[in-house]
Specification:
Helix 1 packs across helix 8. By secondary structure, this protein is α/β, with parallel strands linked by helices. The protein contains 9 helices and 13 strands. The longest helix has 16 residues. It has a 9-stranded mixed β-sheet with strand order 5-4-1-8-9-10-11-12-13, with helices on both faces.
Length: 323
Amino acid sequence: MTAGFPRPPSAPVAVVGNLNLDIRTAPIPQSAALREDGETSVADVYESLGGGAANTAVAGALMGGTVHLCCAVGQDELGRRLCAFLEGHGVRVRAALKPVATGRSIALTWDTHQRHFLSSLPHARLLEESDIDLEELHRAGCRHLYRADVWFADRMLPAGNASLLRRALERGMETSLDVNWDPLWTHAIGVEETRGRIAALRSALRYVSFVHGNERELAFFAGTGSARESARLLMEWGAGAVIVHRGPQGCAAATTSGWIDVPAVPVERIVTETGTGDVFTAAFLLAADLPLEERLRECASAAARHLQGAPSYAPHLGDGIRP
């Protein structure tokens, strides 16, 4: 299959979330000098796709899947450029045009494997439920709807996410929701505002087949200290199952039948770490016909292939478009 995916993907999938430009750095050492006036040389600074939804969509398309991306872009050259890049790599883009600039993020990447994003995403805040044509996606054969980047679309947070996921379930789709990290969690915002945003997303959980997140994200969202306790609460609040991304420790799933642990696939040499979680999720969406444990093993294998750079499921914007 395309780009090394070892089996035919399942039915078409729909991905809903962000598309923006990322400006990324090669890994740099953390230093107090970065907070002072001056300049730091790095091995590389490059442009890439931004947004978990966009990166998941392009990874899925490069694996040979039929992937529809529903997003917002500004009415500008950058929005047109990003859409053309995705379409050139096989993604079927359904972009709502907004009367603002298409946003950008600067991704500072440390040599400790941690990152910090500086983001300005005015277009993403304007995405709303009416921008996603579920009937058209259903006619296109989509059997899974994945909602990424939930914290950026202010208009969908109060009720739109719950409504979208409910309507997808009613059309027979499997649904996924990525909890991810709310940028406001990083700052000292009011406790009540934080609780309100989390409560708004909690109301959507009863319409979610699979919640995705890493251990830190799930713990903050659920207010717990462990992945197992976070997963238990998420399912108590309505989620069908929880997929825990655990990095070098592999992955896990919590279901009503119990806990499944799947180790990471060994990697001889890491070429790139950027976008590994999105690659994992793309494989999960495309392997819907497999039993859950086997599905997770497929995801772990896809993540390992990506880490080794053979193939790359996260092309830079300067990379060539496939024929």
